[in-house]
Protein: Antibiotic biosynthesis monooxygenase
Amino acid sequence: MYAAIRQAKAKSGSAEELTRRIKDGAVPIISDVDGFRAYYVVYAGDDTVTAISIFDKFEQAEEANKRAIAWIEKDLGPLLAGDARAVAGPVIVHTLA
Structure:
């Protein structure tokens, strides 16, 4: 299991529009990558947005980050207070309820 993680700082007050754009734009792009298993987005109180997607293979996680960063630069730029960062790697600990 591998995670693709993207993180950026949003402009204050943009949470609602970010939510709409992510649901309409990012979810279809990420879920279309082979090996897709899950997608989560966390919006922290300091306006940090973190997207985490889970895949079967490392190459799939990297592909998701490549597609996501291209989409972010094109469609989310005006809502962000800086560039998005992306990392991918193996999930070394996980648990479910």
Remarks:
- The two ends are 18 Å apart (CA to CA).
- Residues 2-90 form a domain with the Alpha-Beta Plaits fold (CATH 3.30.70.100).
- The first strand starts at residue 2 and ends at 9.
- The chain has one domain: 2-90.
